[in-house]
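ARCHIVE CARD
Drawer: 12
Card no.: 0347
Subject: one protein chain, sequence and derived structure
Cross-reference: see card 0346
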Amino acid sequence: MENNRDDLVVIMAGYADKMDRFFSANPGFRSRIAHHIEFPDYSDGELLEISELMLEPQNYLLDEEARKAMANYVDLRRKQPHFANARSIRNASDRARLRQANRLLTEAKGPLNATKLSTITASDILASRVFGGGLDVDRAMQKDTKT
């Protein structure tokens, strides 16, 4: 790297605690990296907005109750292990779309209009395991850290 420093850019990204652990593996490594930039986590409101912005180009929208459920989802998910900011919200939105499609498939009694096909409802959000405490492995991990 040193011989090509004018021609080389290396970007390392990760959460602060993980990056600290990474840099502590080799004490001289941190000083070789010229710029360290920390970005704050998104707020709950920003994450809710991000979910809507991710759904919009795909012609999906959250109805009012789904919007409230997503806000509750964000609050609960943030407190669980492995929360990854916007990535967690993207995954939640993707799963809500899949649940919506399955719901429409099982409930439909005839043709569906564009509004039904494009609307995510609260039930599509509330079916997430986040509302049941997360994955079994996550619940076990949370229990272990409390004892």
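Annotation on reverse: Strands lie at 61-62, 119-120. The chain has a mean pLDDT of 88.
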